[in-house]
Design brief:
- By secondary structure, the chain is of the alpha/beta class.
- The protein has helices at residues 6-10, 40-46, 85-88, 114-127, 140-151, 187-191, 197-202, 206-216, 226-234, 239-250, 252-259, 278-286, 304-307, 309-320, and strands spanning 29-30, 36-37, 50-54, 57-63, 66-71, 92-97, 133-138, 156-162, 269-273, 292-296.
- The protein contains 14 helices and ten strands.
- Helix 12 (278-286) links the parallel strand 9 (269-273) and strand 10.
- It is globular.
Length: 321
């Protein structure tokens, strides 16, 4: 994957990477940056939404209209959609989900393959009384959304994948060390395979990790504000949260096996990419669906919904309607 993110190459320091984790307690709590982190309930209220739980799954819901499920990625939580949720809630019933192992959701010992995580989402959808939904996923959430669309076809109206594809055999061809100026290393994919050590290294230091990626990917790092960085850092700090987040990556081997059995996505399929990943992802996604379109979100490096929320809102509204 030659995405040539020069900013990432230039940032030599940084902690090791994990996936988004850690429950936010009901009352405000201290973040790793020394500030306060509002509860999920308070954050949801600030957007005119409600924070809910169903059988170990945390989600935020509100609005009215067709159901629209949003699945976040690493290293974030449902809050990554906070800039687009209020606008979308005017047209849709929005349901932003903390995936298994993420944020306020449970962190069991296993089940981090994307097929099982997609089943979690499907069970939540049915529990909320919906037979079918629109699904949007970013990063790890895009992998889960892809699995959802393949394994729960009748429940998928339309699907949007943002900047990341489902794990496949090409992961085994990624280089850990690349020559200067010839792309970048997905070093955290390898680091997150390690069991036990990340919990020791990252616990209490997750803000270094969050800042590394939030500064490395966006052309304008200020797009990820201080509150958001504290929320994401707080979501990582516990050892169980770190362990659960790493499990998303450790499950890639099973994901590759599952992907080999998948047919193409038959629901209408929109791929949204950053400035850097458009050419690569357009080629990848072209063969993974029967009705595929791929659009670039201008001025973005990876965190599309936070870096250019108005463009993402426009893309989703146009596609889903």
């Amino acid at each position: 994957m030659d995405l040539n993110r020069r900013r990432l190459l230039a940032l030599g320091a940084g902690a090791a990477a994990v996936a988004t984790t850690g429950a936010t307690p009901a009352s405000a709590s201290a973040g790793t940056a020394g500030g306060r982190v509002p509860s999920d309930a308070a954050l949801a209220r600030s957007l005119g939404l409600r924070s809910k739980y169903a059988k170990g799954q945390h989600y935020v819901i509100g609005g009215r209209g067709e159901p629209l499920v949003l699945l976040p990625g690493w290293p974030q939580t449902w809050w990554e959609f906070h800039k687009i949720l209020p606008a979308l809630a005017k047209r849709y019933t929005v349901i932003a989900v903390d995936l298994r192992g993420m944020g306020g959701s449970d962190k069991p010992a296993d089940g981090y393959d994307k097929k099982t995580m997609a089943r979690d989402v499907h069970e939540l959808v049915r529990r909320l009384g919906y037979d079918s939904v629109n699904v949007v996923g970013h990063d790890i959430g895009a992998m889960v959304a892809h699995s959802f669309a393949v394994n729960h076809r009748a429940a998928t109206r339309k699907v949007v994948l943002m900047d990341v594809g489902h794990p496949d055999e090409s992961l085994y061809e990624q280089r850990l060390l690349v020559k200067p100026g010839q792309g970048f290393s997905l070093w955290w994919f390898a680091f997150n395979q390690v069991q036990g050590l990340p919990e020791q290294l990252i616990r209490g230091r997750s803000r270094y990790l969050v800042d590394y990626f939030m500064d490395a990917f966006p052309p304008d790092p200020s797009a990820i504000d201080e509150l958001s960085r504290r929320i994401y850092a707080h979501a990582y700090d516990g050892p169980q949260a770190i362990r659960a987040g790493n499990a998303w990556y450790q499950a890639f081997h099973q994901d590759v096996v599952d992907f080999a059995t998948y047919d193409r996505i038959t629901a209408p399929f929109l791929g949204l990419t950053s400035e850097y990943s458009y050419d690569f992802m357009k080629t990848v996604w072209a063969g993974q669906g029967t009705d595929v379109r791929v659009h670039k979100v201008p001025g973005t490096g990876h965190f599309l919904a936070e870096e250019n929320p108005q463009a993402v809102i426009a893309e989703l509204t146009d596609f889903l309607s």
